[in-house]
Each structure stands twice: as C-alpha cells, then as structure tokens.
Amino acid sequence: MTRLLDLGLDRIRNIIMDMAKLSENSVSTAIDSYQSGAHIKKQIFDWSEKLRVLQEEVSDLVVELIARYQPVASDLRFIKSCMEISYGFSRFGRYSYDIVDVLETMGSIADCDKSAVLEMSKIVMEMIDISLQALQSRDKNAVEKLYQMDNIVDALYRKYLRDIIESSQKQQQNNKLPSEYNNSPHCYISALLILRYLERISDHACYIGDSVHYIVTGVSSPRR
C-alpha cells in the first residue's frame, strides 16, 4: 500500500532530478558562451530563476511533509538532504549567471587565452556528472572521488592566482609581461573571476556527494 508520505517523496525526487538536468545545462551553456562569445545572459538568468523557484518549492514540500507525517530514519534523511541538494543545484544556476555576467561586463575576450578556464571547466563538468550519477544510483562512495577532483580544482585556481601576481611583479620590473600572459587586464581579470565561480561550483558538487553519502549511510562523509 502506498503511503501518502511516499507521494510527497516522489514529488520531491522528481523536482530534484529536474533541477539536476537544468543546473547541469546552465553550467555547460555558460562555459560554451565563454568559449564561443555567445550572448546568452537572459537565457541563463531565466534558468537561474527557475532553479531558485524550484528550490523554494522543495523547501516548502519538506516543511509540509515533516509537519504532516513526521518522517523518521531513511525518509527523514532523504527529505533533509533534498533541501541541501536543491540549494546546490540553485547555486549552480546562480554561478552560471555570474559567469555570463562577467563576460558581458568585461567585454570581448575573443583574443584572450582561455586555456586555464577551459581546463578547469572540463574537471568541474565531470564533477557535476559524477554528483548527478551518484544521486541517481545512491553511490555513497562517489564523494571520495569528488573531493579528490576538488583538490585539483583548488590547486588550479591557486596556481592561476599566483601566476597573475608573479607576472604583475615581472611587468613592474621589466614593463613587459611574459608571452604566456600577454593578455590585456580584462582577460586575466575575467578569467580569474570565472575560475572562482567554477571553484565554487566544484565545492557544491562535493556537497551533493556529501548529501548522497548521508542519505545512504546516515553519517556525514569524511571531508577530504
């Protein structure tokens, strides 16, 4: 016999999976716009707003289910975790919008070196895919790989930041940037901002992995 609580859980599950697909598409589209120069700010904004609305819907459903049915054990873990997961997907949408907002604010980057952003974005997109698959399959072990990849993302961000500082110092000394950083200021400023947003997306992919681990085991995953 189907419990009334199960109907609510199915509703939350469906919203979460809709958010997963939309948030992944938002990030990949924002990255594509960085590479191609396409102007899609309104589209990403609309998706970000839809994700925000869906997050609020999840929160409302969670409160209603807890108040009506007082779930326990695995049901309560799932409901609680869905609030955190929906927040993560909402942040994916917001950071995607921040990325395209940087592109519009900073102007043309057609002649900029995009290698650092594209390198990190490839890892981040893989992390998003792993977190979504973990959510679908309830893979509690995925969080380990996610934190390993997050360490790589963090290292890439710090390396780019250090290289920017070092190149600025060389420019002051020699009044000339080395060839590998022969970009105008808006190139490396835009790249640094976008790398930061990608680094935050990476963090939230890890948090989704944490939530899956908690849903399955009932304990928080060890942070890497």
What is the ordering of alpha helices and beta strands?
HHHHHH
Strand tally is 0
Count of DSSP-assigned helices: 6
Structural class: mainly alpha
Total number of distinct structural domains: 1
Largest sheet: none
The helicity comes to over 70%
Protein model, in words:
The structure is a single chain. Residues 177-182 have low confidence and may be disordered. This protein has one domain (4-217): Up-down Bundle (Methane Monooxygenase Hydroxylase, Chain G, domain 1). Helix 1 (4-36) packs antiparallel against helix 2, helix 4 (115-137) runs antiparallel to helix 5 and helix 4 (115-137) packs parallel to helix 6. It has helices spanning 4-36, 41-69, 73-106, 115-137, 142-174, 185-217. The chain is 83% helix and 0% strand. 35% of the residues are buried. The chain starts with a helix and ends in a 7-residue tail after the last helix. It is built from six helices and no strands. The protein is elongated and about 75 Å long. It is mainly α and 224 residues long.
